[in-house]
Structures are given as C-alpha cells and as structure tokens.
Amino acid sequence: PAVGFFGGFHGLERIGTAVVLAYLGSLVRRLRWDSVLHQQLESVRLVFMPIVNPGGMWRGTRANPNGVDLMRNAPLESRERVPFLFGGQRISARLPWYRGLLNSPMERENEAVCAVVERELFGRRFAISIDCHSGFGINDRIWFPYAYTSQPFANLPEIHALKEIYDQTHPNHRYVFEPQSRQYMAHGDLWDFLYQASRAVPERIFLPLTLEMGSWLWVKKNPRQLFSRHGIFNPLIEHREQRVLRRHVYWLDFLARAACGYRLWIPQEAQREEFRLRAMQHWYWTSAQ
C-alpha cells in the first residue's frame, strides 16, 4: 500500500506545505532511533510532493504563473450547477478560479502530479492521497470525492470504515468528514479526475482525500489578518502555526498507519453493503431530508 502527501496547490496556502514538510521532517528525525517506524516502512510506501505550485508560492498567488487555478484545471465538467466564478471559469486569467483554455492540455504542475500518482499510487492494491489546503470555514474538514457531482462515489464503504477507525482511535478529534459536494461543487477538480482514472481497474482502491484547514478561526482570533493576503489563509502568529502543525501531523501519521494495516479494517465484500448504507445515512440521506 502507499500514501501520497501533497501540498501547495495554491500558492497562498503556505500552511498546507508546512504541514506536509513537518510530517516529513518528523519521519526523517525518527529514522535514527524508531525501530517501529523502520518496520512500518517495510510495509507501506510514503510519497511526498509538498509544493505542487512553486511559481504561485513564489509570487504569492492562488493560481500558477499562467493565472490558472490548478484545482479547476482538470478536463472534467461538473454534472450539476456550480457557483458562479468560484466553481471554475474560463472568462479570464485575471479573475480568480480560472480553468485555462478549453481543450488545452493540463498545466505542467498538474501533469507532474498525475505522473506521480499514476507511477507511485495507481499500481497498488490500496492507496490514499491527502492534499493539504486552507481557507474554508472555521472547522477543519476531511473531504472526499466528489466535487463535480453530488452522487456518492464507489469507495464510500471504505471511507466510512476509515472514519470509524479514526473516531475510535481519536474520539476527541475535531475533523468534519464529508463529501466535498456537500459544501460546493466545481469543474475541473484534479482529484475527481484522478479517482475516475483509477476506476479503470475496479478492484484497486484509491482514496483521494483533502484536508481543508479552517482558516476563519485564525482570522477570528486575530482580525488584523483580514488586511493581509496571506493572513486569510495562514496562521501568522508563531504559536498558532505550531499548534496547527502539531494537530495535523497526527492525522497524516494516522493515514500512514491505516494504509499499512488496511487489510484489517477495510470492509470485506460481504460487509460493503452494510458500510455503504451507513455512509449513505450519515452523509447523503440526512442532508437530503
């Protein structure tokens, strides 16, 4: 099994890259003394891509240097109505959430991500990706597909099982697990595109997740951050950044351990329908009522 850790799709969201690098740094420092980690790494592959959009990060922009929002750039159209502009637009690169020209190749950054995912994750019986973002709401959220449709995705039983073992292991956590479509829908989501590509081999399990850190809480505690472009997406006070890194490093480490022992918790074929019904009740039927 394998886990891919990604950050920095949006150049303004530096804290996502910081979380991925903090976890990578922790692993490197533990290699000198942690024999359990050595045993774990014999059973799971960890892949790191901390800064997908280095040009955007250098420029301090959400988009890449071509003005394209990398999370609206995949060749995938929403099946349902998306928010104006926010859901992806082709009007102008001068406006946010620009998707790029119609029928043009994906941006080079996204092509690089696809190459890494196809090479390192798609060949596995089980794989997880976690993409670290910030800037949405007060709560920290774990999103799973889809963003382009409100319909549930095929691996809903596995997502519900993953949530269950996290709830049991860390009962005091504050993450909100939900499909991204529950908050908004968008064209061109790269993880939706890659998930659909992974379905070419149905027996393969690929779970693309997004950590969406709720930056509004940082702004609420320090309203002056509203006047800083970086302050809207990142904690600017040192002790708050340290707290954010500590909290989310535990989540990334959990994913590595969960992938390592995936055979012990994923629903077997006879259990999948039961898990699917519980997931539908939790995320879809309740929201429709």
The sequence of SSEs as H and E is EHHEHHEEHEHEHHH
Structural class: alpha/beta
- The number of helices is 9
Overall geometry: globular
Provide the low-confidence segments as ranges: none
Summarize the amount of helix as a percent range.
Answer: 25-40%
Beta-strand portion reads 5-15%
Number of strands: 6
Report the major sheet.
6 strands, mixed
Structural Rg: 18 Å
The average pLDDT is 94
Distance between the termini: 38 Å
The order of strands across the largest sheet is 2-1-3-6-4-5
Describe it for me?
39% of the residues lie in helices and 13% in strands. It is of the alpha/beta class. A six-stranded mixed sheet has the order 2-1-3-6-4-5, sandwiched between helices. The N and C termini lie far apart (38 Å). The model has no long low-confidence stretch (mean pLDDT 94).
